[in-house]
Design goal:
The protein is of the alpha/beta class. It has a single domain, classed as 3-Layer(aba) Sandwich (Rossmann fold), CATH 3.40.50.300. Helices cover 40% and strands 20% of the residues. A hairpin with a 4-residue loop joins strand 3 and strand 4. Helix 5 crosses helix 6.
Length: 204
Amino acid sequence: MSKLIAIGGGSGSGKSTLARALMAHYPDEIAILSYDWYYKDRTGESEEEKARANYDEPKAIDTARFLLDARALKEGKAIEAPVYDFATHERKKTTHHVDPKPYILVDGVLCYQVPSPRDIYDFYLFVDCPSDIRLARRILRDEEERGRTSSSIVLQYLATVRPMHERYVESTKKEADYLVRSDLRPTDDVSLIEDIHDLLSKLP
């Protein structure tokens, strides 16, 4: 039976980087189930509707589909998770095949906003990072990977990312079982990766 490990934190804090580093060090034990794969499909919406949407609140996520897949993995079943295109805000026809491993890492800004998170997750990591570093990382990522302009990124940050972070994300820090500081690049620290793996290996 797989254990689900939530990795929360603000946008640009380094959640996905940490998850990938853990999986790279322990590929036989760890798989990734990104919560961001479960953004709702906006096929059929106009560009104006997509631009106005708030992607930083819980209802932007297909929680029901996520919970089905998460529970299947916990039961030792492989899944076909959706593929979300952040440039078009639509789901692709391809899927992410995820095999059950001892530890399934669920990284995502809103991953702890599922109903009764302690019924789903066995451990909660929170990646803590100053807001200026998170914004800088977000600008670099969205310009390079999503073809966006710096002005549109900053406007979205001020309109929804920052207020939704304060409402839904920052408050979950106190729920974390383990806090990771991400001022620079903690995933380059092998001892940190080993410490986290050691913590997971001791879970009941």
